[in-house]
Design a protein that fits this description.
7% strand, 4 strands, mainly alpha, 143 residues
């Protein structure tokens, strides 16, 4: 019985010891238990490889990504008669950035030149959050 008590005492002492001593005392005590998962080195997860080719990826055709006809004014500005809402906003932002139409003091504010005044209902200044709202009438509703 004393040998069993000694093994239990050594096991309890190894549980209270720091992690580096705990594994060495378990091995020296002759225990058949494996070291806990905490002491093992964690395997790094393999990074997921995206092997999707652009040809296999199907474009979305609903909501913001739906290609719809646009008004003649917006069609002249964008150079196409049909576009998605996201592409229209991207086109307007590239125009704004290339012509330096943002207010330097407040980047959220856009100064409209003559071209943008045709699209934005003749306003001199437009907030960047207003752009999508002001573009809405330019997209023709289809049933």
């Amino acid at each position: 019985m004393s040998s069993v008590a000694a093994m239990v005492f050594r096991g309890a002492r190894s549980l209270l010891a720091p992690a580096s001593r705990a594994t060495s005392s378990l091995v020296s005590a002759g225990s058949t238990k494996k070291p806990s998962a905490k002491t093992k080195a964690k395997a790094k997860p393999k990074p997921k490889v995206k092997s999707e080719s652009p040809a296999k990826k199907t474009p979305r055709s609903t909501g913001l990504f739906k290609v719809t006809p646009v008004s003649p004014v917006l069609a002249q500005f964008l150079g196409t008669g049909e576009t998605t809402r996201t592409d229209a906003i991207k086109g307007i932002w590239t125009y704004i950035k290339s012509h330096d139409l943002q207010n330097p003091a407040d980047k959220r504010e856009i100064f409209c030149d003559e071209t943008l005044k045709l699209i934005f209902e003749g306003k001199d200044k437009v907030g960047f959050l207003e752009i999508s709202k002001l573009l809405s009438p330019h997209f023709v509703k289809t049933a």
